[in-house]
Amino acid sequence: VKQDHSCNALLALLSQQHRLLSSPGIGCSPQHRLLSSPSIGCSPLPASAAMTTSSPSIAIPPDADPSTWLSTQPVPALTASFEQDGFCHVDGLLAGSTLSAYQEIYTKFLQGDIDARRHRHDLGSHVDQRTREENVCQIMWPSVYMPELLEMPLHQRTRALARALLGPDMAFDFDMLIFKGPHTATPVPWHQDEAYWADMPDKRAVSIWIPLDNASLDNGCMWFGPGSHKLPLRAHRPSKPGHHALECDYDAEGAVAVPIPAGACTMHHGATLHYTGGNTTSGGRRAYIVNYRPQAMVDWLRAHGFDHGKKGLDVFDHSTAGDAYK
């Protein structure tokens, strides 16, 4: 596997006006290994091939200590909103050169400079392709290709938020990128994240959605069904037979749109109904999503063979996923 040294240059962006600090990865043991991914123009390596990588010192903002940052947030109001409505949002998760660095890293994934083909697919493939790009580009597990991400502000701060909302045992489960290119105009249908997952004994979970571009009604901001997390999980089905995206029936009466600026975030419960509209604008809409659940449930999922496609989407087994696929 060819290591993408451009990542080091991107990380250097974070060092501008920042101090260097080494910190252990979130949910990542010292024996963490990168999954193999073929370099562009090279023959694919066997799925069993892997490479080790050392964790360099990561540049983080001086105010990025997650507890310090969290102390600036209205945690009681966020918790109340999350418990009552099933969602809430926070401004200023990322800003300035930190936000710019994430935007550039994201672009490297999209362009293939960081080659994530084994974890990349079109989440909007149930709709006829509207442009030369994927309708909805989804890249699972970016932190597998760049473990440094686990030590950077996005993951550090979102973990702090997850623990503030749902308890100190909340741990990193998985991350993903979802990109809606210009004029792709493909919605992600109404669904509940729990429908994608195995049925766990402890259903505490939070998905944190961070747009790296301003998220608007026209390019695919989040919509939520307030209070839907308190109701039984709805019946879901693939949006088209043989395709990955799930949908459920929901009349969307009372649904709430949450347009937010780049670097802010929304947080929603695993059972909260949500949706994003298609991107009808001339600009892209990049979103980084991180999921947290109790460490015991992360361990339970792995023991039951469910890793959110970490082994690669080419070997993803829907029989270990939610009942909607069965």
The structural class is alpha+beta
Q: What is the count of helical runs?
A: 7
**First-last Cα distance:** 36 Å
Helical proportion, percent range: 10-25%
The stretches of 5 or more residues where confidence is low (pLDDT under 50) are 1-10, 13-58
Main sheet specs: 7 strands, antiparallel
What percentage of the residues does DSSP assign to strands (E)? Answer: 15-25%
Overall geometry comes to globular
Radius of gyration: 19 Å
Q: What is the mean pLDDT?
A: 80
Order of helices and strands: HEEEEHHEHEEHHEEEEEEEEEEH
Q: How would you write the strand order of the largest sheet? A: 5-15-10-17-8-7-6
Count all strands and give the number: 17
Description:
By secondary structure, the protein is α+β, with helices and mostly antiparallel strands. The protein contains 7 helices and 17 strands. The protein has helices spanning 6-13, 66-70, 75-85, 96-111, 142-145, 153-166, 295-303; strands at 19-21, 34-35, 50-51, 58-60, 87-90, 120-122, 137-140, 170-180, 188-191, 206-211, 222-224, 236-238, 246-248, 256-258, 265-269, 274-276, 285-294. A 7-stranded antiparallel sheet has the order 5-15-10-17-8-7-6. The protein has a 4-stranded antiparallel sheet with strand order 9-16-11-14, with no helix packed on it. Strands 1-4 form a two-stranded antiparallel ribbon. Helix 1 runs antiparallel to helix 4 (96-111). The radius of gyration is 19 Å and the shape is globular.
